[in-house]
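Obj.: predict assembly geometry.
Materials: sequence records (below).
Method: joint structure prediction, all chains together.
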Amino acid sequence: MRHPTDGVLRRLLDEPAGVAEADRRHVADCAHCLAALAATREDAALVGAALSAEAEVDVPAAWARLSTAAHASAGPVRTPSPARSARRGRIGELVRRPAVAALAFGVVLAGAGTAAATDWLQIFRTEEVAAVGLRSADLVALPDLEAYGDVVMTGDDGLRPVPDAATAAAESGLDVPAVDALPSGITGEPEYQVGGEVTATFTFDADRAAQAAAEAGDTLPPPPPGLDGASVRLVAGPGVAQVWQSGSGAPGLIVGRAVAPTAFSSGVPFETVRDYLLSLPGLPEDVAAQLRTFTADGSTLPLPVPSDFVTTSTEDVDGEPATVLATRDRVFAAVVWVQDGEVTVVAGALDTGEVLEVARGLR
Amino acid sequence: MDLVRHPLPGPAVPAFAVALPAGVVTRIGGRDGVPVPDVPARGALRTDLDVVFRREYQRVVAVAARVLGSRDQAEDVAQEVFLAFNRSSVPAAEAGGWLSVAAAHTALNLIRSGRRRASNEETAATAVPLAEPDVAEVVVTLEERSRVRAALARLPHKQAVALVLRHSGLSYAEVAAALDLSPGSVGTTVRRAESALRKELTRHASSH
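Observations (raw structure tokens):
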């Protein structure tokens, strides 16, 4: 009989019952196998010792920490109506996030004058992005856009996988950026995903806003005339993403491109809307001031980031100013820039140098 | 047992989900089109989280500590993994295996990224109680620990995960299910990993 494999010998140490009776009998009578088994046992013991670590924990303290983190990361519990839930998907959820609501406010607050009363008038087109730092606590504390009116999402069907770059290009109408050289540790083929155009329309409701403020113990500033019932619309996409998975299930590398957001209004003076929305309870004054500055030129898309987790800086990608984001633990980094009305992002479990290298090498 | 198909988002992913423009945000929370039903509402905790946490926390920290050599870091990983579990629909009966696998993956990714904060090794030194806080001994311990981590990081991912899970007490059947291996090949995978690690350790020891 041939000798059992190394794997069988290894299992014999841990789970002898899992090893076939014939193999066990062979090993017991075979000097060669017994010697190999001894070496296997030695290696297992050595490695076991090397991997040992003290792990005494305070479970109640850890539970308290987890409970706090779970609540803080998830935000306040709300129970949206079924009708609203049904029409809201992944991107809708994202757009409704308070910070992104601030973003949506921001983009409509450009210096356009009074829009035509009946037509949707474009008042903003993204030409560059700039980060707005908000503490996580501020992000959580910010008012939910739905507290102040109706949010209707259309085209929010999320991203869907497609088989290859050619299909992604055909379905999105975008040039799919090709990565020149993958960073170290990223291998294999990406999954291609495409998403259609997404529209978010927000219609201000003064009664609901007052009620929400009262429930939160705040007083709503009196809405200016004409604001009640006025709508603003944010349009973005279509978009395409290439995702390389890492072993943990988190994306190792994402390269995404989308038609950059534009904003429209149904007929309200934008400075009035801007100043009112930026004065709502919950938005820190310094952030509001920053948003007012950004929107003055009508082309800068504010990118809300949790400043206690993320650092930001500015770099150059192919002659365009690019916003570089990195988590403070340096596990994730991203770079975002806009060129010819398209926003491109490179992100992943990489450092800033690596995402910039990928960004600058896109073809 | 389908341990690895459930998504395991990292800590920074939610932050970027907020930060990325709407049109290019991917479905970070789901892979392979696998839906994640019955997850708790925002801000809510799974009703079984408390029980699972008290039952499994110690073991999950131990898995991560084997990889990281630092209890503090291991607790960070464990917190991250339990948050992911809270967002998942993994049945409580499968939680033990799922959490261990998630902890091993997450911790290995941390050391493989090679971007841990410079202070981590110092943290490891203070986190592990030493009988005698002798300076030479601390240096040796740190050196050994960092050598083990470096060797682990160089192993093929599957080998490293199998090794850590096996030394954390998971059965061959559980390791096999987690890594999509046949139970018969778990022994081979673990043996290869141990052999490679022993070579790294003894090679270095003999050069001193």
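Conclusions so far: Chain B touches chain A through 93 residues (CB under 8 Å).
To do: check interface contacts against the pulldown list.
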